[in-house]
Amino acid sequence: MLEANRQLILDLIWSVLFVAAVYGAKGGLLRLMHSKIANTTTFYRAKRIINAVTFFAVALVLLIKWLNMGGSLLTFLGLFSAGVALALKDILLNLVAWIYILVKQPFSVGDRIEISGIKGDVIDQNIFKFRVVEIGNWVQAEQSTGRIIHIPNYKIFTDPLANYSLGFEYIWDEIAVTVTFESDWKKAKRLLTTIVEAHSEDVSEAFQKALRETSRKYMIYYHNLSPIVYTDVIDIGVRLTMRFLCSPKERRNKNEEIWENVLETFSKESDLDFAYPTIRRVE
Asked: What domain count does the chain have?
């Protein structure tokens, strides 16, 4: 019994040293590759392959090592089961989620996603977590905040995942312009229609092509891909809402271009005034 325990301790020490040596060598290799490979995309893909190969190689060697322990196998299995129950739950969930992400690809590096209330562009994905560059939050129009958020892989099993980029790289966006009741709202609608159509020409054809490709995999279809202006009435005036397609990462630039065009166009029209909250005093 004493000899068996001694052998078990030696095997545990060997396993720890083996893992440390392999991952140390992997870290050195990645640092060398980073200094030699200038292309970020190429380096990242090589890094993912090396990480996956290292993980499975280490797991295979340890499995063979412990399976060949003979009498110590039952002891190892008991310790392993207890560890799984107490300490490795989240680790195994992350590992299973990592395999799911690789196989099903609910998102890829470069996609813009939202999960657990966090929006961002995916910049990295490994065995236990993925990383996104945060967008939105205190920054308007879903632009980058510069913060990197680390999200455990298992979140894809527990939280809804929204992918801005899956299938086709366009989303619907809206800009609302409100004019006073005294303004010629029909004229305003015509002008806004002309403006939004002019700023949507560059994405309409590309969107139709992407949509055709996506429809082979998902039941997604739209009857009308053209930009449109909707009319409704609110308490301060007539609200005209432009609805159009744009790339998620170009949303702020597109909004700025359209708004500048609207301001320039309306400034030339004497019968069009923007509405804003006012208080009228009648005596």
From this structure: 3
